Amino acid sequence: MRRTLVRRTVLTASAVSLALLTSACGSGGSDDKAGDKAEEKPSASAAAPSAAPAAKGKSDAETAALLVTQADLKDQIVSAQGAAGAAAVPAEVDNAACKPLSQVQTAQKVGAPTGFGRTSAKAKPQELPAGASAEDKLKAGLLALGGDQTLITVASYDGKGAEDAFASVKAAGAACSGGYTVTYEGDKTKLDSVTSAPVRARDEAVHYTVVMDLGDGEKSTGHLVAVRKGNALATFYTFGTAAKFPGDLVDLQLTKLG
User: Fold this and answer.
1) Residue 3: is its pLDDT beyond 60?
2) Dihedral, 244, 23, 7, 84 alpha carbons, nearest 10
3) Residue 154 CB contacts under 8 Å (≥ 6 apart), including other chains
4) pLDDT by residue (tens digit) across 25-68?
5) How many other C-beta atoms lie within 10 A of the C-beta of residue 48?
6) What is the CATH superfamily name and number for domain 4-27+57-257?
7) SS3 of 55, please?
8) Is the pTM here over 0.90, yes or no?
9) Domain boundaries, the chain
């Protein structure tokens, strides 16, 4: 029996895309170059150079505009409503150190961003012939619901806010490697382990595989990714029957960050 947290992330995040799925089944950094002149030594009376201004974060509207869209992902169903549904009610964790992981898993804000946006992406199902039966359509829809789905967030911060938010996710991965328990609406779900996995580095990046105990001997492995690029933080959580690391999606989203 799948626990409530899984129903929340899988069913709630997929609720909007289910109608789309069933209908679809029925249709046929560059290097700086040194200058030629040697740097002149400043005179004793020269004013000290001013410090670089602190980074300013973007607004919600500006940040949300940087998210991947349906136009970017032709082979996936993109749904902001799916991600909003997953984030509707925060989950509680038994270890406060693990909270940033839970926030990424449920498309929540990490830290205090000035701007924030979230969406979800799920692979489209294979199209069925025009004459497919209602039973075939239903089976295809249910199979598609078990496919990989990724919750995506992008957040913008003032100053070093993105660095601090990233550091909290990285620290949580180390502190919670032995697992943690999440409580949602009174139902407890055990996360068995959090394991570091390879990821291509940008300014900073982490990738964790998270094993969830679904009960009745069932396990589910998800991929949790956080990447900092300047004063922006992008997070990804991919889950499904046999979830795979969303490398292409991560690369595309980071490209849109500029």
Assistant:
1) no
2) 90
3) 63, 64, 66, 67, 116, 117, 118, 232, 233, 234, 253, 257
4) 444 343 443 343 333 333 333 344 445 567 899 999 999 999 99
5) 6
6) PknH-like extracellular domain (3.40.1000.70)
7) coil
8) no
9) 4-27+57-257
